[in-house]
Design a protein that fits this description.
The complex is a heterotetramer. By secondary structure, chain A is of the alpha+beta class. Chain C contains 16 helices and no strands. The chains are: A alpha+beta, B mainly alpha, C mainly alpha, D mainly alpha. Chains B and C meet through strand 2, helix 3, helix 4 and helix 5 of B and helix 1, helix 6, helix 8 and helix 16 of C.
Chain lengths: 215, 478, 474, 425
Amino acid sequence: MAYNRCIGTRYCANNCPVKVRRFNYFNYNAEVGVGYGVEAFPSAIEKANRKLQALVLNPEVTVRGRGVMEKCTYCVQRVEKAKIHARKEGRKIEDGDVITACQAACSTNAIDFGNISDEESVVAKKHADTRAYGMLEQLNIKPRTMYLARVRNPHPRLKTTQQIEDLATIEAHHGHGGHGEGDGHDEHAADAHGEAAHNDSAHSDEHHGEEQHAE
Amino acid sequence: MSDTNSEKIVHGMMAEFTTVDTLLSACRRIRDAGYTKTDAYTPFPVHGIDKALGIKPTILPWICFFAGLTGTCIALTMEIWMNGVDYKYIISGKPFISLPAFIPVAFELTILLASFGAFFGMWALNGLPRFSNPMFTDPRFDRATDDRFFLYIDAKDERYDAAGVRSLLTDTGSDYVSEVLEDNTPKEIPRPIFVIWGVAVAASVIPLLCVLLMRVTNSSQPRFHIFMDMDFSPAKDAQQVTSLFADNRAMRPDVPGTVARGQLIGSLDVMTGIDVDSLQAMNAPQAQRLVAAFMQDDQAAIADEVTDVAKAEDDKETPSVMDTTPWVTENPMTVDSELMARGQQQFGIYCSVCHGMDGKGNGLVNQRAQEKGFDTWVPPSNMHQDTLYSDKYPDGKLFSTISNGIRKMPGYAGQIKVEDRWAIVAYVRALQKSQNATMDLIPEGRKEEVKSAVDAAQKELQRQADEAAKAAAAREQK
Amino acid sequence: MSLAIPNGLDNTVERPGERAPLVLGNTNYHDITESVCQVAERKPSAGWVGGFLVAFALLQMLGLLIVYLIYTGVGVWGNRAPIFWGWPIVNFVFWVGIGHAGTLISAILYLFRQEWRTSINRAAEAMTIFAVACAGTFPGIHVGRAWLAFWLAPYPSLNLWMWPQFRSPLLWDVFAVSTYGTVSLLFWYMGMVPDLATFRDRSKNKYRRMIYGLLCLGWSGSSRHWMRYEKAYAILAALAAPLVLSVHTIVSFDFAVSQVPGWHTTIFPPYFVAGAIFSGFAMVLTLMIPARSMLNLEKLITIRHLENMCKIILATGSLVGLAYGTEFFIAWYGQVPAEQFAFINRAFGPYWWAYWTMVSCNVISPQLFWFKKCRTTPWIIVVVCIFVNIGMWFERFVITITSLSRDYLPSAWAYFSPTWVDWGMLIGSFGLFFTLFLLFCRTLPVINMAEVKSSLAKQHHMAHAAAEHGEAEH
Amino acid sequence: MSEHAAPKFKPADDPTFSLPSSLASLQLPLLGGGLVALIVGVGMAFAAESESMPRFGFSTYLTAYMYVLTLALGSLFFVLIQHLVRAGWSVVVRRIAECFMILILPLAILFLPILFSLFFEGRLFVWTDPNFASAHGLDAKMWATKTSFLNAPFFIARSVLYFLIWGGLAVYYWRGSTTQDETGERAATDRMQYWAGPAVMLFALTTSFAAFDWGMSLAPMWFSTMFGVYIFAGAILSAHCLITVVSYVLQRHGAMKDEITVEHYHDLGKYIFGFIVFWTYIGFSQYLLIWYGNMPEETEWFFARQRGVFGGLSIALILLHWLVPFLGTMSRHIRRRPGLMAMWACYILVMHAIDIYWIVMPEARHLVHENIPNLGGALGLIASILSIVGMTALFVGLGLRVASGNRVIAVRDPRLRESIVFENL
């Protein structure tokens, strides 16, 4: 997502099957001297200039005005910071180096973030879990974010035949055999960008039927 | 008319016809007569006339073909270079050079350039635009675009001979034959046109110059921005105002129910000081309200609820000295020296200013208030009255008082962390004990030490008392 | 001239082996010139002035709304997540579709040697250009930062040094619509050059003469010029024919390359093209029928012309119906739940009213044209065509909005409601269209005189040949 | 206005209006030889079946069959559309199309082997295999819905319906046209024009569904709304080519020497050029949308055609079915040379056979993800060629048989005169 280049056709948002994108329909920051139109301007040229310089030197965040699409960046600034830190120490990035904002705010530790190309990382292990599934994976969209199916504990006598079958045949996590031409995501993965695993207990996932006793 | 004719250049001879068929037969005749520099002028394309006049086919299709080919090449080169070489951008898992996706633009550019080829090629081959044409001098020629057909033989033709041509044309059945003369309208272009042209050109350059100027100027001032876009950061700082939210605060308070990281300690009992399970059993709605208020993270509401809980008990049929609120009776923290130290520190910071370092209710604030004699001043409680001892005033109630305040005392939940409040409770208990301590409470190992310390203190007191007595005696002697 | 058909004869009946005349009345070349030129030369009628004022007022409204939109932000429309594309895109596709008829009549019917196109192609082409102008307005202002819309051009933005993304269908669209607009303009203008010369030669007024003289490039009617002109016209027609198909195809790609259920279906390109022709012809008829009686052009735009257009409307309407059916069938046959849901939702979901409006207007109403009576009665044609226009607008509404409002994740579903700005812009775009069209009627040749004369000549020639042949047989 | 010599209009019993005897005598060799070649070819195809191409035999037959069927259907559509638009230019060549259109009737009999394949579970259409769903891990409920459409009885019923409709249309237009040869009745033309509209609708519907049934359902989990149009595009293109070739051959043998002029070749050439573009347009759109959407259930079909020898064939189709004939027939000068046009038409007819082969044969592969379809070795290749050639010979022989009993031109069509004098702009 190149925010500076975005002119807001909203095509990406339309076609996003998981509808994660949101759009700045208006300028929500009109009154702080950075808005559109003259009323924002008069007193603040010098200040605005300083802010502009600050923006140039700010490697972390781009800020978006109206007419620009919004998207989760996986806290790219935190990822970058952690990478720089790891490089300084001459080591690879490790679990816990990057704590994304959502992860930090989540009181139930439902979110894990890390490097999926590192097989020892928590996310990689959770991705390999039988309960892991990607949202709308059948569309070949190769999602990086995985969810863990809800754990339920039906009485054996209340299980449906489907559940019994599924439990009998349950194996390692299945993805779609990659037979698309695209390999962009693989490159992303190699980039030590992280991967989130949501342990979303509220997400009821009926068709998976991989319920197991856990509690 | 004849005298003017002699002064002007004769371009050729034209004849007028009224039907297509007569025109065509006339064309064939003059073709067969060997004239080559001929042309016909018709209001619509007449089929077969190119053969009748011997007009050669045009090369226009080739121009179009090559123009179209150029379009394809430009488009593909542009796409491959831009997306495949110069600016590689991963999108929707497609390769950088995705030929299928490049086809539409290539197709459109092919058509566009081929169309330009056809359109402007036609202009070029026909020598258009050509605004001055000797044919136009004859007013009858105006009907060449309406319903008349004209045949023209150019004077440059090798066989041209005015009389012969005139008779040939009259022979073909034309009822009007006339010489085509040089246009006698003035050739100069009117001056105002040049002026307008010049002004227009000059004016059209101005915006370009402005843009250029803005691009090359070095200035510490920001460029003029019609649209601010993302040049300036709209991030808000703390303590700023915004009109976006009803409370005008730019910094948003926590979402209700938020518990800061590391602040979720144990259960609700720990957080309120009330044994919520017992309260649930006694007064379920009350308990639910308390929990709800707590989820809202609204200190005032919690305080109200807690006092309500306490009050509800007080208001019961017989006002009882005994508080029946199910307070937590035991400090949920592990009471050790560390906790004590923490409690002492926190007590020193927050409580001692009113209650005094020893808890007797005579802190600096109180002293000052007494000195000033404020009549609304309610003196802080003395921690050492027996109603505040743990048998009458359970730990939970004390915790609740610290958190939510009592009488003039404000709640300290906002300032002191939960753990620290419990630490204060523990410390206050220690303070209370310290006033009524007996030797039995001292651990064996330290009894001697304490005894000697007490003895030393008593000795010192004795010494001071003696000295004071001596001094008093001495004064009396004087 | 004696062979011309008396005025009022029904030229919708055609005996096999004889071609019915396309120009009625005891007409000669000069009559054609007169009847076409009088439209522009006489004083404007009260009806024209009134119509123009209304249209122009609506155009002003559109302009003001655009200013308001750009000043405030695209949130003034009803577009909300997940319906990121709302009415503006519906209007865009609607107008682009209408913009297909002119070039189609001019190019494809020309290539198929359908001579009846000659009386209607000019006005239809003009409509194409005006419709493309209306269409072009919407994507331009639709983007969040309209002032940066020029970034869509393959131009390296100076501060970012980036290129546009050629793998995006939206960029194809930019190229397709702009190429289409340009080529249609060339085609229209080129067809007009000889007629502009007629205007020039008839002008009494010096300035008129100068302006038309400049516009017609000094056209003289030379046979050499005509020969190259006709070649160029044929080539342009041959280029415009695939172009006109490609434009709506590419518009359909905007939808069909995505994974949105209800959008991603391979029938979209031909189906969009059929729909475009369908709506375009309906619009041409809607305007042409009142225009031909107001401008006294009944002899040139005859019932036969109308009937032929009705037949094309019937054919394309049925094709569109077939495509609706095929979509439903394949959605069921394909057994992809999301796809199935999308189609059931279209027909029976919250937008069922839009869907059934679309079906009844687009598929059912043109079926009236199976009856000759309906094909040859102007007011019935107008009524049906207005229904078709409404239906085609709803088709775009159905495709764009129902698919977006309910796609894969129910958590993201929403219902679209337009704002007053949406309404204003839709109405305002009609203002733009009619302003341009009314100006066109007053200033430019509304009928291709040269071609009509040419077809009259052919009509005479054929009648002549038939007469000779008849004599020979006797 | 014409510079041509005034055309001569010959009487209806002119000898050049019937099939030249040199061609009529080819009937038996073509029929016999074609039948033998077909039987041998299909026999070899069964022999060429292997682990990787288990459905080779019937698929080869289907390829050959679909090839001639599209020719007949294209001819039928040609006739219908000429009536629908009251075309004048095409009258001189319309009878040629009519002769091939009526072959729908014998083709109905040749369809029997395909129906026969339904009795062998999964030997042609894999959905006839009751174990298909479980073997490929498909959802049972979904498969049940699918087989409510794709099952033998319903399939047979639909096939019968298609042939009834096509046969009915073909017979109606054949009768109308040949009767007019005798009576010269103008009203016959009116009647045929009247029914052309509904006939085209019926044709569009049935062809679309026949394409779904006989082409698309070979890969039962794959679907593309455009598929019917794709088959139609190939059919109409090859029908124009067939008409061009046959016109040329007839003229070379003395029939219709003066009636079919260079103008008709020019016009046919324009249509051929146009339909090459149309075929490309449909094929490209179908590919692009599926390629871009990249959804597994759709890409599967192209994926099978992207690897191995079929990958090469796909590229070859783009270059040889589009680019080469596109450039080749672009020029007016080429289109106005009957010999050259006939050559290009032959070439495109070959390409169309490859196109059909490319559609059908990859589905004969063993349906596992890793399996790359192949040509069945030298034996398979020879078998395929023999079958297609044999079937085509049979088809042409039948056409000659039809033509020999009738005139090769609609002599009393009221628009014949217009057609003969017709000139391109």
